[in-house]
Amino acid sequence: MKQNEKVIIFSAPSGAGKTTIVKHLLSTNNRLVFSVSACTRQKRESEKDREDYHFLSVEDFKKKIELNEFVEWEEVYEGSFYGTLKSEITRIWKSNKAILFDADVEGGLSLKKYFGDKALAVFVKAPSLHELERRLRNRKTETEKSLKVRLSKAMREMEYEKSFDVVLVNDTSEESCREANQIVNRFLE
Predict the structure, then answer these.
(1) How high is the pLDDT of residue 4?
(2) Which of 21, 26, 44, 176 is 20 to 30 A distant from 120 in Cα terms?
């Protein structure tokens, strides 16, 4: 299997630390290229369009659905859509690199199903629900209402960890990043 035919998917409930791990992998492994997802949520202050996400209006997102421009997509929260554009897959595979995805749990499972044996799906989880809540609160991006929605969703998502190829407990970032490097390198060899 060519390297550019391989796909690595990191999925987790919100706040588990998958984005930190993915950013570490991208900074240390030149065989990987990040797949920039499309979404309809508001851009955070630190984020850049087309680097962190393709930020789209709900109307534009729905139009792309109609035009069959997504590998997968879903409405994660009411009115909040996320998906993987087919153009992203083409862009990365033309560079002869492996694709690295940072996806929510349902999106990760959809990607694993779509890519089959070409994919390695890694489920990242916090060591406890209490720790997950602490991490979400420390972001200072959540209201009490949105925090409850995210925690409720996280509890449902935890039920899917057995559907992934590997489960990575993110206790400390340093250790989890080291372990993620090992997992990815084994898959790419």
Answers:
(1) 57
(2) 44
Q: Which two tokens stand for residue 104?
A: 């929510």
**Which helix (DSSP H) or strand (DSSP E) does residue 103 occupy?**
strand 98-103
How is residue 146 written in tokens?
């949105």
Residue 154: the pLDDT is 82
What are the angstrom distances between the C-alpha of 166 and each of 65, 72, 73, 125? 30, 21, 23, 11
pLDDT of amino acid 147 = 78
| Domain boundaries of the chain, sorted by first residue | 3-188
Does 149 have pLDDT greater than 60? Answer: yes
**DSSP characters for 143-160?**
-HHHHHHHHHHHHHHHTT
Q: Is residue 153 within 8 Å of residue 75, measured between CB atoms? A: no
Provide the CATH topology of domain 3-188. Answer: Rossmann fold (3.40.50)
